[in-house]
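sry for the spam today, last one i promise. C-alpha cells for design, 480 residues
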C-alpha cells in the first residue's frame, strides 16, 4: 500500500491510496479459498471446485466483498500511519478499481486540530467549603421534629379539634342502600387536612371517644362506582379514639429513630447534609470556572464540518428565518463548544480516562433514586434508547475529566458561611440567566455542559474511520 498526503496546510487533507493488483489478487485468492469448502456445485465434490469455476460463478460478488474489506482496512491504516484523527466521516472517491486491476482511491478528510493541554495542569479555580453554624443544624433538626407525627390519646371527654387524629369505623349508604366499599374499619383522619372526602373532616370537630356521628358527604368524580358519582352518601361513624399531637422531644431516642447513634451523631450527619446541599452547586461553579479557563486556550482552526453540525443542534426546532437570524451567534457558540470538547477529549485520552459499565449502572441507579415511583419508566427509557445511554456515558466521562483537571489544577480554597454560599449561587444563577437571555437562548440548560463534548456523545476523536464505498455493493456470496 502506498499513501501520499496532499493539501498539507490546514485541516482538510486528501490521502491518495494505491494498492497494486498483485495485492488485490492475493485478497481475492484468500476469499476463494474461504468459500471453497462451503460452496456446493453440481458435478463437484465439496472443497474441490476449481478457482476458475468459482470465479465465473461468484467473481462479481467476491470482488464486492473484497473491495469493501480492503477499503475499510486500508483507509483506517492510512489515517493511523499518518497520525490523522478525522473530525467526522471521511469521504472516499474511487479512481481505479476492478478485478485483476490496481486499486486507487482518494480519502478526503477533515483532520482534528492539534490541541495543547499542558496548561490544564496549572488551571486556577475557586474551591469552596461551607462552614455550617450550630444554630443552622439545630434549626434543621427542629424542622424535622416538627414534621414527625407524635399523637397521644386524650381522655374520653376531650372533644376533637382541628389538627387532632381521629380513628373511626364507618358504614355508608346512598339513598338508604349499601354499596361496594361502603364500610371502613379503623380509618384515621387528621382533622383539617380534608384528605378523605370534601367537608368530611369538619363534621367530626367536637366528637369524643365512643361517640356515634352521622356525616354526609358527596362522592367524588373519581369514585369507582360510576353510577354513584356526585351522589350524597350518609356515613354512620363510630369514634374509636381521639389523639392530639405533642411536641417531639429532641433527644437520643429521637436521633436513634432517624438512624443516628445518638443526638450528637445526628447533629454531625445533619451538618454534613446541609454542607453537601451547597457543595454540589458550588462544585459545579468551580467546574464552570474551569470550562471558562479552557475557552481561553487557543486553537488555530476549528473544523468547519463540526461547526455546521453543532449549529444544526443549536437551531433545532427553530423556523428557517429564526435560524438564519441567529446563525452568526450560533457559529460563535458552536466554535467555543467544539474547542472545549476537543481539549477535554485530548486530556481524557492522554490520561487514559475510561468509563466502566459499573460506573454507567451507578449513574442509572442515582437517577432512579432521584425519581421514586418512576423507576420502571426510567429503566425502560434507557433500555429502549441506546443513544440516551451513550449520552449518559458521555456525561460520566466528562465528569471524570473535569474531576482530574481539578486534582491537577491550582485550587484557591475558600471557607464561606451559608449566607455567603447563597449569595454566590444567587449571583451565578442571575449571571447565567442574563447571559442566556441576552443571547436569545431557546433551550434552558439546568447546568453548564462542555460543547460538543462526550456529554453529547459527539466525541470528535474518532479512532477508526469508516470508509464509504463509492461503488454499488454486489450481492454476498451464497455458501449453499
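last one done:
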Amino acid at each position: 500500500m502506498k499513501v501520499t498526503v496532499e493539501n498539507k496546510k490546514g485541516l482538510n487533507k486528501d490521502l491518495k491510496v494505491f494498492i497494486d493488483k498483485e495485492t488485490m489478487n492475493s485478497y481475492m485468492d484468500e476469499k476463494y479459498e474461504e468459500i471453497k469448502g462451503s460452496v456446493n456445485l453440481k458435478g463437484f465434490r465439496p472443497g474441490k471446485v476449481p478457482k476458475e469455476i468459482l470465479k465465473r460463478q461468484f467473481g462479481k460478488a467476491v470482488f464486492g466483498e473484497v473491495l469493501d474489506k480492503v477499503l475499510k482496512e486500508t483507509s483506517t491504516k492510512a489515517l493511523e500511519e499518518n497520525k490523522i484523527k478525522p473530525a467526522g466521516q471521511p469521504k472516499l472517491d474511487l479512481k481505479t478499481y476492478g478485478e485483476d486491476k490496481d486499486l486507487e482511491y482518494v480519502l478526503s478528510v477533515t483532520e482534528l486540530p492539534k490541541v495543547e493541554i499542558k496548561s490544564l495542569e496549572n488551571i486556577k479555580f475557586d474551591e469552596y467549603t461551607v462552614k455550617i453554624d450550630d444554630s443552622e443544624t439545630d434549626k434543621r433538626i427542629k424542622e424535622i421534629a416538627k414534621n414527625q407525627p407524635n399523637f397521644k390519646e386524650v381522655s374520653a371527654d376531650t372533644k376533637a379539634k382541628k389538627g387532632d387524629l381521629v380513628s373511626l369505623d364507618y358504614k355508608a349508604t346512598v339513598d338508604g342502600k349499601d354499596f361496594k366499599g361502603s364500610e371502613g374499619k379503623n380509618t384515621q383522619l387528621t382533622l383539617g387536612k380534608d384528605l378523605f372526602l370534601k367537608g368530611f373532616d369538619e363534621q367530626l370537630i367536637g366528637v369524643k371517644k365512643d361517640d356515634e356521628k352521622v356525616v354526609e358527604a358527596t362522592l367524588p368524580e373519581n369514585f369507582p362506582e360510576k353510577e354513584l358519582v356526585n351522589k350524597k352518601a350518609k356515613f354512620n361513624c363510630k369514634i374509636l379514639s381521639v389523639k392530639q399531637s405533642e411536641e417531639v422531644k429532641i433527644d437520643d431516642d429521637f436521633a436513634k429513630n432517624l438512624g443516628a447513634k445518638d443526638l450528637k451523631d445526628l447533629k454531625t450527619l445533619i451538618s454534613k447534609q446541609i454542607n453537601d446541599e451547597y457543595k454540589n452547586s458550588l462544585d459545579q461553579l468551580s467546574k464552570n470556572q474551569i470550562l471558562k479557563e479552557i475557552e481561553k486556550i487557543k486553537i488555530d482552526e476549528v473544523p468547519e464540518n463540526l461547526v455546521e453540525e453543532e449549529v444544526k443542534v443549536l437551531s433545532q426546532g427553530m423556523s428557517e428565518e429564526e435560524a438564519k437570524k441567529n446563525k452568526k451567534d450560533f457559529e460563535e457558540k458552536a466554535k467555543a463548544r467544539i474547542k472545549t470538547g476537543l481539549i477535554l477529549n485530548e486530556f481524557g485520552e492522554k490520561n487514559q480516562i475510561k468509563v466502566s459499565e459499573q460506573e454507567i449502572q451507578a449513574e442509572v441507579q442515582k437517577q432512579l433514586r432521584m425519581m421514586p415511583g418512576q423507576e420502571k419508566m426510567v429503566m425502560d427509557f434507557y433500555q429502549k434508547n441506546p443513544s440516551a445511554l451513550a449520552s449518559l456515558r458521555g456525561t460520566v466521562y466528562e465528569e471524570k475529566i473535569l474531576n482530574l483537571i481539578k486534582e491537577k489544577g491550582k485550587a484557591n480554597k475558600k471557607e464561606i458561611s451559608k449566607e455567603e454560599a447563597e449569595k454566590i449561587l444567587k449571583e451565578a444563577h442571575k449571571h447565567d440567566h442574563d447571559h442566556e437571555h441576552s443571547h436569545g437562548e431557546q433551550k434552558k440548560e439546568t447546568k453548564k455542559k462542555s460543547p460538543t463534548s462526550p456529554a453529547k456523545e459527539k466525541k470528535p476523536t474518532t479512532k477508526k474511520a469508516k470508509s464509504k464505498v463509492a461503488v454499488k455493493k454486489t450481492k454476498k456470496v451464497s455458501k449453499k
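Residues 263-295 form the longest helix (33 residues). ok im logging off now
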